[in-house]
Design goal:
Elements (H helix, E strand, L loop, with lengths): L4 H6 L4 H8 L1 H21 L12 E7 L5 H16 L5 E9 L2 E8 L5 H17 L12 E4 L6 E8 L4 H15 L5 E7 L4 E7 L1 H6 L4 H11 L2 E9 L2 E8 L5 H5 L2 E5 L2 E4 H4 E7 L4 E5 L2 E10 L5 H18 L6 E5 L2 H31 L1 H8 L1 H15 L6 H30 L4 H28 L6 H7 L1 H28 L9 H21 L2 H48 L3 H22 L14 E7 L6 H18 L4 E6 L2 E6 L2 E9 L17 E8 L10 H12 L7 E6 L19 H17 L14 E10 L1 H6 L4 H12 L2 E8 L2 E9 L1 H4 L2 H6 L1 E5 L6 E5 L4 E9 L1 E3 L1
Parallel strand pairs: 7-24
Antiparallel strand pairs: 1-3, 1-4, 2-3, 2-28, 5-14, 5-15, 6-14, 7-12, 8-9, 10-11, 13-14, 13-19, 16-20, 16-21, 17-18, 19-20, 22-27, 23-24, 25-26
Helix pairs in contact: 2-16, 2-18, 3-14, 4-5, 12-13, 12-15, 12-20, 13-15, 13-18, 14-15, 14-18, 15-16, 15-18, 16-18, 19-20, 22-23
Length: 893
């Protein structure tokens, strides 16, 4: 029944929607721009695993090899902290002092610009250096840089095979030279290799016999190995630069350096020391499937497209395998973050397509296909508009953005359904299409705006979450606000125009032959888009074509039956139910019953309290087995233990082997595990324990990387993790073994951290150990492991100087300490050049003397007496004594 004109005029309009209907051509142009620009923005948006976190956090790392944690704290950390603490805007200073290394992390207020924070910290460190608050003989200046949470390896490239480490290193350096120039790559680090050095291993007895000191050896080498500019001379009206070249070109030249000349006696370096060009002392081991491996850590730049970067790297590797590398060189890629990102992007595309299909199918039964499509287009149009805005803001398509987009999918059609259904109702009542579009939106505009605003209000609080978690989570509300705001724009601006032009009330009568022809045309367009590589548009057109076929032959007849029979029946039953509920005193009873149901739900929630976890338990992509022996353990011993555990895990994984015959040869492949990597020494600490620096010869790690989920043949990697824990647990006395999976979500430490703060570090450790024992004694359910972040029992040899004796013999503490440090740790006295590479020249005791306490204490400190001018030699044992003790592994502040 048509409404009277005065009743029609009484229905208000919404200005923006009326404007869009009156300027439909402009809206069509805007729609085309949104589609094209949205597709371009989607392709251009950098794909990343996690959001690029920008936090004003500065790292200060200072090496001072050979010093204990307590000495590092006193000599370096405290003076630097004192200067840094004067900087305005500092929120927190935390430091860790380990053997030979000081680490200071300076956290600023979030309002502080990271570049300004970096400048301020550098100035503070420079003040400490100029005031001579820190030692002047540091081997290198403090390393100061901004902590970039996005600068994590995006993949590990592993090179292995029947090759020497030097050969593998050459292949790794070739890939490094090819990958680093990529615009999206920040750097490539090579691990698992040993650097070379020139070793000058001094025979202490021969050196003492000719009355030489370490300083004499250092001076002789340094003055022989140098190039000096002599200025310019004018010759034949040409200015020529004079340069004296005296750098070593061979090891033989170093052997023949004269270290002492008295009368006719000449002492060469080779007379008192063994000179060799060899690898440094081993600080790490690396293996893949129990074979030596060289690993490349590829680090991307902020804002880089992870998927495109990964594809470019894979192209480089394939080209190198085809033209540069031998066939038996094995190259594997592990921890590739692009796999997860690619999967998430595919899930988003599939969710958009399935969302459109399901929305159209559901609405088809109520509104018909044509009218259902008006609502269905809200999903891709809202997404394209969101991509435009996000890309203009410089946002990467990361896990949080993708999660937000998928979360918003179900809400994108809410506004469109309300608008389209109301316009459809008015048309069915007799309104002309244009007027129905204007009036239909006018009736519901304010309610849907309010509804969208209340939905967004529920998420806005997440945008103010403080700390690193807040920086990670803020993209959830930001993305939702953009997407839902886009859906509101589509509902108020685009949907009214589409309905005014193409909506027709009443049941649709389709000709099956015509529908089939149109569907074939759409499928042909889909094939064309597949050929040019625009897969999102191709998938949408494919879905549309299939729906047209399905609609013409199945859904349209079913929809006609539904509208003619089911909807009227539902209306009648609903009216009957409302009449029953609203009659007499029943509304009061239903209201009280609703309140009672709410209270009952709270009671159930209290009785059956759900388990709370910030991120859900995931099926591991890889498993890490962390191995920790007693601190002070030699790296060779740790390596032996790691090899044993590596073999046990490898044996456990053999049940997932496949045996095939290739050209008559039996080949064994593991269908579940993509790589098994073992590391010992550097880079083996648990990342949940925080940043770790320095050498860790007592620690090892075995990493098991699994294939993609679809290739696992139904095997649960969580079960594999439990099996690994079972086979390594309690079988290695004195070895602490932890098996854990890859973390999900933002960077986070342990679930619960208890900090004990005080002035006396020794007392703190005792108290913390008592607290640990007390908590363990309570057997609290859910605690898997309880440990201190500082290890005690680190072996130490204390050399105590008798200052009175030293003064009588004209020796200073500095002379004694320098002699012992050079003898044990060594001292870099110059550089040896070979090609474009520089190698340190290290002077120290020969290994047979270096690890002998008696020889160390009986070495003679040789010096020239300033009063008599004669050379004196004083044994260290004459002015100092040695005692064995234990200490802690680190000092944390």
């Amino acid at each position: 029944m048509a409404l009277e004109d005065k009743n029609r005029a009484a229905i208000r309009e919404f200005g923006l929607s009326t404007l869009s209907v009156n300027n439909r051509n402009t809206v069509f142009v805007i729609t085309a721009i949104i589609i094209l620009a949205g597709m371009v923005a989607y392709q251009a948006m950098p794909k990343a695993a996690f959001p690029d976190l920008v936090m004003p956090t500065i790292y200060v790392g200072t090496p001072y090899p050979g010093n204990s944690p307590a000495d590092i704290e006193k000599l370096i950390t405290r003076p630097l902290e004192k200067e840094i603490n004067t900087i305005s805007g500092v929120e927190k200073i935390s430091s860790t002092c380990i053997q030979g290394y000081s680490t200071i992390i300076v956290e600023f207020d979030f309002e502080m610009d990271p570049s300004k924070a970096l400048t301020k910290v550098k100035d503070a460190v420079d003040r400490a250096k100029s005031n001579k608050d820190i030692p002047s003989d540091l081997p290198a200046d403090p390393n100061i840089f901004e902590v970039d949470f996005a600068a994590m390896p995006i993949m590990n490239i592993n090179l292995s095979g029947d090759f020497s480490i030097e050969q593998l290193k050459e292949y790794g350096e070739y890939l490094e030279d090819k990958i680093e120039p990529l615009s999206d790559i920040s750097k490539v680090d090579i691990r698992g290799v040993q650097e070379k050095e020139v070793k000058i291993d001094v025979n202490v007895h021969k050196m003492e016999a000719v009355e030489l000191s370490f300083q004499d050896v250092e001076n002789a080498i340094a003055f022989e190995n140098m190039s000096i500019s002599g200025g310019d001379i004018l010759v034949d009206e040409l200015n020529r630069t004079v340069r004296v070249t005296g750098e070593f070109t061979s090891i033989e030249e170093i052997n023949n350096v004269i270290v002492k000349r008295e009368k006719f006696d000449i002492v060469y370096l080779k007379d008192i020391a063994n000179v060799s060009f060899d690898f440094e002392q081993r600080q790490s081991y690396a293996r893949e499937f129990q074979k030596p491996v060289v690993m490349l850590d590829v680090v991307k730049r902020v804002g880089a497209n992870l998927i495109l970067t990964s594809e470019a790297i894979n192209v480089i590797i394939e080209e190198a395998k085809a033209s540069e590398f031998p066939e038996n060189l094995q190259i594997s890629i592990t921890n590739d973050l692009s796999d997860m990102t690619r999967s998430q992007v595919n899930n988003l595309e599939n969710s958009i397509i399935s969302g459109v299909i399901l929305v159209v199918i559901v609405l088809l039964f109520f509104l018909g296909l044509r009218n259902a499509m008006f609502v269905g287009v809200a999903i891709p149009l809202s997404m394209f508009m969101a991509f435009m805005i996000l890309n203009s803001l410089g946002v990467t398509l990361n896990i949080m953005v993708l999660f937000s987009l998928i979360l918003a999918l179900g809400m994108l059609v809410d506004n469109g359904i309300v608008v389209v259904e109301n316009i459809y109702r008015l048309m069915d009542e007799g309104f002309p299409p244009v007027l129905a579009a204007k009036k239909g939106v006018g009736e519901v505009a304010l309610p849907i705006i309010t509804s969208t605003a209340t939905t967004l209000a529920a998420f806005i609080s997440l945008a103010f979450w403080p700390g690193i978690m807040g920086e990670f989570m803020k993209w959830l509300p930001v993305t939702l606000m953009i997407v839902l705001g886009s859906s509101l724009f589509v509902a108020l601006v685009i949907n009214p125009v589409l309905t005014a032009v193409w909506m027709r009330p009443g049941a649709e009568h389709l000709q099956k032959s015509k529908t089939t022809k149109n569907a074939v045309k759409v499928l042909g367009a889909s094939a064309l888009f597949y050929l040019i590589g625009t897969f999102t548009a191709a998938n949408l057109l494919l879905a549309l074509g299939l729906i047209m076929l399905l609609n013409g032959h199945v859904l349209n007849p079913a929809a006609g039956f539904f509208q003619a029979r089911i909807i009227p029946a539902l209306d009648r039953r609903y009216k009957t139910f409302l009449h029953f509920v609203l009659s007499g005193r029943k509304p009061i009873g239903f209201f009280i019953g609703t309140i009672g149901l709410l209270i009952f739900s709270f009671i159930l929630l209290f009785i059956f309290t759900p388990q709370v976890e910030f991120f859900p338990v995931n099926e591991p992509k890889y498993v890490n087995v962390f191995i920790q022996k007693a601190i002070g353990t030699d790296i060779e011993s740790t390596n032996e233990t790691t090899q044993e555990i590596e073999a046990v895990i490898s044996e456990l994984l053999t049940k997932y082997n496949d045996t095939t015959n290739v050209h008559g040869e039996r080949k064994i492949d593991n269908y579940l595990v993509s790589s098994l990597i073992a590391q010992v020494g550097e880079g083996t600490s648990d990342p949940k324990q925080g940043m770790s620096f320095g050498n860790t010869p007592h620690m090892g790690r075995v990493q098991v990387s699994f294939v993609e989920f679809k290739d696992r043949r139904g095997v649960s990697t969580q079960t594999v993790l439990e099996d690994i824990r079972e086979v390594v647990r309690y079988k290695y006395p004195g070895v602490q073994i932890t098996a854990d999976k890859d973390p999900v979500g933002p960077p986070q430490g342990k679930a619960i951290n208890i900090e004990v703060i005080g002035d006396d570090y020794d007392s703190l450790i005792v108290f913390a150990d008592k607290m640990k024992s007390f908590i363990n004694s309570r057997n609290i359910p859910g605690i898997e492991e309880l440990k201190l972040d500082v290890e005690t029992g680190k072996p130490e040899l204390i050399i105590e100087i008798d200052r009175a004796k030293a003064r009588r013999l004209n020796l200073s503490s500095g002379q004694i300490g320098s002699a012992i440090r050079t003898a044990v740790f060594g001292k870099e006295v110059s550089k040896y050049k070979e090609g474009e590479d520089d190698y340190p020249i290290m002077v120290r005791f020969d290994e047979s003397f270096r690890n002998n306490i008696e020889t160390l204490m009986n070495q003679r400190i040789t010096f020239r007496d300033q009063l008599t001018g004669k050379i004196s030699q004083v044994p260290v044992s004459a002015v100092a004594s040695a005692r064995k003790t234990t200490t802690y592994s680190a000092v944390k502040r």
